[in-house]
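WARN  no MSA supplied for this record, continuing single-sequence
INFO  ligand: adenosine-5'-diphosphate
INFO  echoing inputs
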Amino acid sequence: MLGQMMQQPLLISSLLQHAERHHGAQAVVSRRVEGDVHRYTYRDLASRSRRLAKALAALGVQPGERVGTVAWNGYRHLELYYAVSGSGTVLHTLNPRLHADQVAWIAEHAQDRVLCFDKTFLPLVASVASRLPTVRHFVLMADKAHMPADEPIPGLLCYEDLIDGPGDDHFDWPRLDEDTASSLCYTSGTTGHPKGVLYSHRSTVLHTLASSLPDALNLSARDTVLPVVPMFHVNAWGLPYSACMVGAKLVFPGPALDGKSLHDLFEAEGVTLAAGVPTVWQGLLAHVSGNGLTFSTMRRTIIGGSACPPAMMNTFEDTYGVQVIHAWGMTELSPIGTVGVLKAHQQQLPLPEQRALQAKQGRSVFGVDMKIVDEDGQELPWDGQASGELLVRGHWVLAQYHQGEQSPLVDGWFPTGDVATIDADGFMNITDRAKDVIKSGGEWIGSIDIENIAMAHPGVAMAACIAAKHPKWDERPLLVVVPRANAEVSREALLGFFDGKIAKWWTPDDVVFVDAIPLGATGKMLKHRLREQFEHHLLAKA
Ligand code: ADP
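INFO  complex generated
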């Protein structure tokens, strides 16, 4: 017997329609590449998205074809999110921080038909344009006044001309099958060749619903949300969708991601919730503490993408009264899998124990299940001790890479490549990426724990712990440190700092000081580069 309720497909266009009808006057504020701050409403967003959808159809973009973007977080990018996906074509967000060859490779692999980009990225796109035979139209996301005088790319189109092209904004969003592909994002390649993850309308809307729940990102119409996490990386953790769903005010930082620009925008627009990777928050905190500032409206910050150092968490919470929501996810998970929000009985624990729990990656959001397994694939207990590879499955977890030959799934589960423990309350804690694990005398040492301790030392700006070859133990931990400006920190002081905080044999064998640690296109430390550079360091000393 079937239920007798309405059959409405879960479509991205419905998020926009909701925002327009129920939160039409809510603001969308964007710092632009042009240098000024632009503001309009969800009503304007909806109207311009419909015009854009008409314009793209007029350009001949067919259902299922890919429209690429190379753009900062801003209102034009948001219009593309809705216009492209809403009309049954596929939004392909490209990461401009990748090398030009990689950008070209990805655009070619995705077979993008149209490429829309911010003026910042004109030199990048112009340098690869001749290598992109599938792209029929290049669109500069600017108005006429900001179009280049010469034509750096033949036939370059002006975005605002496209928006103005259709006579009116009348457009009916098609009633698509909810399993239709909506957007495409390539993994950043920290773990090998970039691979395309093709989201659907259904997976996106379900992710939007679940990620907004109180024990997830806890979003509401009373929030002012600022995604620092780029819209070119896993859809800015879904915030462009969830803000529309709940009717939150949206604030986009554009290209200005330094501490001062961000803090100015937070204060000017009354931001209550911001989201980003730890490396971005470092710059923000340095600016705020260096200038004796505070956060007058910010209440919560979502930190993910790599482990949030407990020292950063403590600063946000204790010094500035900003709650840290630690989240874990992957491109393959749309991205949210777990969120570190405490349960009632955990809130009764002494503060240090609460913080230790918050430093874990958190518990599963409904819609994503997880398990940890040993090397034979046997499930391990949830005792907070046993660690093994983390596998997940759920409504917004990838089943197959775009044009991938083999499914990556193992018995219906997606292997994440992360190594983790899970405790009795379901709190998952990533101890390492499988490829970063340090194997000393046959035992695993988790590099993230070591980095977290090092980061709590006042003289340390950034720390990476890597496996260095060792004549006796095979591998031993080596700490690579960027010292804080004007701080005195010695090797001995740092190694002594681990006393009593960690098992003795986990203490790194040595420390090397460097000016900078290489970061990947999504702000993560490129530990494989450090390994290439320093893996023989201990052998050389032995
Ligand atoms: P890539 O594999 O290309 O770097 P993602 O950006 O999707 O792709 O990164 C996903 C990975 O980032 C996870 O598998 C995990 O290793 C790491 N990660 C994400 N969030 C966290 C977190 N809160 N703590 C520790 N690691 C994290």
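The radius of gyration is 24 Å.
INFO  checksum written, moving to next record
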